[in-house]
Amino acid sequence: MSDEARNAVVAALVDLAGSADYRDRADAGRCLASFAEMPAARGPLLALVLDAGDTFVTRATAEALLRRGDAVGLAAVASALAAADPNHADWVGTAVRDVFAVFSDERDAAVRECEVLTGHPDERTRRGAGLLTAVLTGIEPILH
Predict the structure, then answer these.
(1) Which of 22, 52, 62, 97 lies deepest, with the highest CB count within 10 Å?
(2) pLDDT digits (tens, 9 = 90+) for 4-26
(3) Quick check: 1 pLDDT over 90?
């Protein structure tokens, strides 16, 4: 896909993220997670993880970011977790457990990546990486 097409998709999803309907926002969060490395997606993704209207949007977006299985997705969730109120933090924690409760190697890889993120230049991401590590290390995966 060309950069122009990717930018157009992100722009359309950012518009959808502004919908009054929580289902539209959740769909936008799931889809925008695929484009999380693009600067135009970062702010809207943070807003969706911290969605003021419905925590379903929080959970769906956080889960999609975590399922990327990379530093970009983990950094986005960590940043949001650092800014989350207790209710949103609980739903992010639920998404973390849903994603990483099965395979220990996936959980362990996420913990290692969070350790790297504790050296991130952004203070909120560093703080969130510590919080995310605490959630991850509290998980006892089913398969080792």
Answers:
(1) 62
(2) 999 999 999 999 999 999 999 99
(3) no
Q: pLDDT tens digits for 65-110?
A: 999 999 999 999 999 999 999 999 999 999 999 999 999 999 999 9
CA separation, residue 1 to residues 7, 35, 51 (Å):
10, 12, 29
- The full 3-state SS of the chain, as one line of letters, equals CCHHHHHHHHHHHHHHHCCCCHHHHHHHHHHHHHHCCCHHHHHHHHHHHCCCCCHHHHHHHHHHHHHCCCHHHHHHHHHHHHHCCHHHHHHHHHHHHHHHCCEHHHHHHHHHHHHHHCCCCCHHHHHHHHHHHHHHHCCCCCEC
**Amino acid (one-letter) located at 87:** N
**CA torsion angle 99 104 108 114 (round to 10):** 20
Structure token digits, residue 85: 């109120």
Q: Do residues 85 and 55 make contact, with C-beta atoms less than 8 angstroms apart?
A: no
